[in-house]
Amino acid sequence: MKNFYKTISRRLILSILILISCVFLTGLSIAPEEVPVPQAEPSVSAPSPPPETPQDGAVIDHPLPEDPILTKGPWASEHFLMSEYACDCAGYCDGWPAEMDPELLGKVEELRCVFDQPIIITSGVRCERRNAEVGGIENSWHLSGHAADLYCPGVPCDEVAAAARALGLGVIEYPDRQFDHVEIWR
């Protein structure tokens, strides 16, 4: 549930950033042309070249800053950060009681590509205490980094399960909770 709220808050922050950027860029495009652009004082060590004046109708590129919440950290695969697989306990461990199985990471990436849309990891590796808290079995594959719980927004969990099985993953479906448990058997 903690990851669910974390995902929601990330999406809310991203939406707010996009909204603010749209308002800012819209304000730039309708600003009167007579408004002077303030010039910075030239540096003593090296004078800066004059700013380029865009032609009428040209758009000045203002890239958004990197989102430190969504894009910082090592990547597990093309679409997933390693942090998405970390134990979400309340500080009982350092987040990595075991390494994630590279084969699982690859299969989850393949699953994401099957649907060509985001897949949300709700649980990756777990420490024993967190596993007990969520009702995991004693020898859960989560404890050794060989399992993940996930869902694909807008896609029925039985379709996600069928695609995961086709990729060779072991699957336990939780239709009442709208997620699937996927695992690599070792």
TrEMBL record:
Keyword terms of this UniProt record: Membrane, Transmembrane, Transmembrane helix
Lineage top rank: taxon: Bacteria
Signal peptide: none
Occurrences of domain Peptidase M15A C-terminal (ranges): 79-170
Keyword Cytoplasm: no
Protein's UniProt keywords contain Membrane: yes
Gene3D superfamilies named in the record: 3.30.1380.10
TM spans (from-to): 12-31
Protein name: Peptidase M15
